[in-house]
Write a structure and sequence with these properties.
The chain has 210 residues and is an alpha+beta fold. It has one domain. 35% of the residues lie in helices and 27% in strands. It has an eight-stranded mixed sheet. β4 and β5 form a beta hairpin. α2 packs across α5. The chain is globular, with a radius of gyration of 19 Å. The termini are far apart.
Length: 210
């Protein structure tokens, strides 16, 4: 169940994180044996609840993952080129799971998103719904997923590390918005849009978000 839980975390993160700007550039990937060894190491560590640090590299793009039981943290560095000015901006995105919520944000804004992690029962009830997003998750926690990322030019390295629970705490200087809570907050008794509630909610966020 640990592995399934982490896979779900990946899915939700990649729905709300800034998006993937992956360019298909030819690189020298790891051998199949190296990929399988890392996959087995990571899957075993997750199942045993051991703290793990992983790095995925592909040219200028870099993703880092810290996993400790059901706690999870990700940092992603993505170069984005402006075609008009030919200027490249580096976007640093982060995401954290504290078992209850997933928080995501980047260094371009003081606003981020949070979403409640569904329970195992909710996952069972919405199996078909979650299947829509399975391809969005970087499934490098098994051998087949490793091979897929290898074909895309990624190099993956994982190692055991030491992690405290405090490292999985979202930053206090970011205003996190729960999209589902916002939707519920502006609905009327019968589920219709309440314009009065929408105006009140808009004023609240205008006061806290510049």
């Amino acid at each position: 169940m640990q592995t399934k839980h982490i896979a779900l975390i990946f899915i939700v993160i990649f729905i709300f994180i800034i998006g993937s700007y992956i360019k298909k550039t030819p690189l020298t990937p790891q051998t199949i044996n190296e990929q399988v060894t890392e996959a087995q190491k990571l899957e075993s560590a997750i199942q045993n609840g051991e703290p793990i640090y992983c790095v995925l590299d592909k040219g200028a793009e870099k993703m880092e993952y810290w996993i400790k039981g059901k706690l999870f943290k990700m940092k992603k560095t993505t170069p984005i080129k402006d075609e008009e000015t030919d200027k490249t901006t580096i976007i640093n995105s982060q995401a954290i799971s504290d078992q209850n919520y997933i928080y995501s944000w980047n260094d371009q804004s003081k606003q981020g998103y949070k979403i409640k992690i569904p329970t195992e029962q909710e996952i069972k009830e919405k199996t078909e719904e979650f299947k829509e997003y399975e391809d969005l998750a970087p499934q490098f926690i098994n051998e087949s997923g490793y091979q897929t990322l290898k074909n895309e030019g990624y190099t993956i390295n994982c190692k055991e590390t030491s992690l405290s629970d405090e490292e999985f705490t979202p930053p206090a200087n970011i205003k996190f918005i729960d999209p589902l809570e916002m939707i519920n907050a502006v609905q009327g008794k019968n589920g219709e849009l309440d314009l009065g509630k929408l105006q009140d909610l808009t004023k609240q966020y205008q006061q806290v978000i510049p």
